[in-house]
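Dear support,

I submitted the protein below through the web form. The confirmation email said the job was done, but the results page showed an empty box. After a refresh the structure appeared. I'm attaching both so you can tell me whether what I see now is the final result or a partial one.
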Amino acid sequence: MKWKHPPIIKIYEALGAIADGRVEISGNSGKVYSSSGNKFYKVSYDPRTLSIMANDNGSYWKGYLGYPSIAFLMKEGIISYDKTLADLLKGMAWKDINQKFADDFEKTLNYILSSKSDDERTSLIAFAHNAEKEIAELNLKHYGKRIMPPKGY
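What the results page shows now:
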C-alpha cells in the first residue's frame, strides 16, 4: 500500500522538527518528538523496499505521509534538507498554531509564512515545492501495520 501525498505544511513541520533537535535516529528507526515535547512518534524505515511507517495522526487516520516520516527522511538525506531554511521555523509551536486555526493547515501555513520576510517566504515556498516533488518520486510504501498514535498534548 502506498502513502498518500502529504499536505505541504507537513514539509514545513518536518523542517521545524529537525531545527528544534526533535529527531533522533538509530539505524532504520527513530523518534520524532512533538512540538510540545510531551510525546514522540515512532518511525521505522526499510531502505530496500522504500517503505516507512510512523504513528502520527496524519499517517494513522488520514493515510498520508506525516511530518515525522518526512523529518526522518530529511535527516537521513533521502529528501533534501536546508538548515538555513529550517532555522526560520525553529521554535514554532505547531500544535498550538494548528489548534488556533482549528487544524486548517492552509490558515496555519499562511500565518507562519506571513511572519517571514519576502525573501524568506519565497525561499521556504520554493524549498517545500521541491521537497513535494522528491516525496512523490520516492513513491513510498507502508512498512508493516499501522500503529495507534500516542495520546496527550
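Response: this is the final, complete result; the empty box was a page-load delay. Residues 61 and 148 are 9 Å apart (CA to CA).
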